[in-house]
Amino acid sequence: MKNTEAIQAKGHRQIRVAKLENVLRNHKGNGFAHIITRTVPAMRKTGNPFHGNVFKVADVNIQAGFEYINSVNNQLSREGKTPDAEAKPRKWGQRIKGTPLVEHTNKAGEHRLYLEAKCEKVNSVRYVDGEGNAIDKADLAEWLQERSAKSSTQANVDKEIILRDYALDSIEWIAIDGHKLELD
Q: Who's near 18: CB < 8 A, 6+ residues apart?
């Protein structure tokens, strides 16, 4: 791809991400959505032959616009426990009131928007290289990092509420509020 084509492709993607941002800023209340994301998996770097050339592609059903603490307390009630969990402040980023969006500026000064979502069902996960060729997860196993333990807010919950923040530019496709957007 020539440099001009790469710049045009990047500009085209930025326009699509802006459209997604607009849809999400206008999303009201709690609703279901279906997304396909392409992210860089958490991996150890030292000696890793895959580092920098592997992506995780996930197909996930989510809820957007949900209230995390309400979900935790509802789950406690379903389990016959006292719904007394209290929300702790986010460790990073700032929620944008009235939307399912979180904004964050990293140490390098780069600003990104994220979709805060409750993971309902993971339909599929696969790993690919930069050209889209499949990589077997078993080949990556020694390099992939495990997720941290569940939140202390959910210490008394048997069935964990899975919260994910998806960078808008990592969302390849989404169906939400009657919109279907392909961002590839």
A: none
CB 22 within 8 A of CB 184: no
The residue ranges of every structural domain in the chain are 3-182
* CA atoms 145, 151, 156, 160: torsion sign: negative
Ranges assigned E (strand) in the chain = 31-39, 55-64, 94-95, 101-105, 111-128, 134-135, 163-167, 171-176, 179-182
pLDDT digits 0-9 by tens, 108-162: 999 999 999 999 999 999 999 989 999 999 999 999 988 776 676 777 888 988 9
Express each pLDDT in 53-84 by its tens digit.
999 999 999 999 998 899 999 999 999 999 99
Tell me the one-letter amino acid at 146: E
Alpha carbon 155 to its chain's center:
23
**Segments in 52-180 forming alpha helices (H):** 68-78, 137-140
